[in-house]
Amino acid sequence: MSISRGSGAGATKTFNFKLVLLGESAVGKSSLVVRFVKDQFDDYRESTIGAAFFTQVVPVDDQTTVKFEIWDTAGQERYKSLAPMYYRNAQCAVVVFDITQEASFEKAKTWVKELQRQADPDIVIALVGNKNDLTSRRAVPAEEAQAYADEAGLLFQETSAKTGANVGDLFKAIAKKMPLDSQKQSQKGGRTSASGANRPSVDLSNGGASNAAGNCAC
Questions:
Q1: Domain containing 52: what range?
Q2: Within 13 Å and on the Cβ side, how many CA atoms surround 25?
Q3: Assigned domain for 147 exists
Q4: What are the phi and psi torsion angles at 185 (to 5°)?
Q5: What is the pLDDT along the chain (218 residues), one digit of tens a residue?
Q6: Domain count, the chain
Q7: The model's pTM
Q8: Which residues contact 212 (CB under 8 A, 6 or more apart)?
Q9: E strands present in the chain
């Protein structure tokens, strides 16, 4: 974790945290982060290749803000082996599934287990059921997902990248769960800078590039 401070009395502290998004292809990871960062939505967002990088600031209180340095990873199976590069040293993760696709929920559980086994032991994980604007096609009951999140010690939120429902609340909740004790973090030697030798290469063209035009990732 890195910290920046403004000048003068009552200056705001900004805490930087690395956040990674994981989940199956087309569950809406890219749409979710673009809604959060740019408040935009595209019905036919192209699939991410590798990963895309974003930043966004969330105010926690009058004197504290959290800056998320966000890695949006590709969901296709052929990119799965790259995921550890992106969740390595991450302080928080958003694992996304599509509420209309039971298989994507099962895949999300697999991602959670992998994070709990291989990522930072103190990582904050949020389980997100996206596309809650499609409740008539729901395949994953909210109660089932909430029960799993409670059992696994996760934050849980249902969202809609399309309508924007609960997207801001999701990232605000994550920000409030992050450790904002600078002394504790300096002792741990945490690092979240988006630059440096450990930063993996990434194709950022067209917000993450694509080889699957026309796939709805809403």
A1: 13-180
A2: 18
A3: yes
A4: -70, -35
A5: 767 665 555 678 999 999 999 999 999 999 999 999 999 998 766 666 557 899 999 999 999 999 999 999 986 666 678 899 999 999 999 999 999 999 999 999 999 999 999 999 999 999 999 999 999 999 999 999 999 999 999 999 999 999 999 999 999 999 999 998 754 454 444 443 333 333 443 333 333 333 333 334 44
A6: 1
A7: 0.80
A8: 25, 46, 47
A9: 2-5, 13-23, 51-61, 64-73, 92-98, 124-130, 155-158
What residue has token string 């604007």? 133
Report yes or no on 23 lying in a domain.
yes
Q: Is 195 within a domain? A: no
- CATH code for the domain of 115: 3.40.50.300
Whether 185 is in a domain gets the answer: no
**Pairing between strand 64-73 and 92-98?**
unpaired
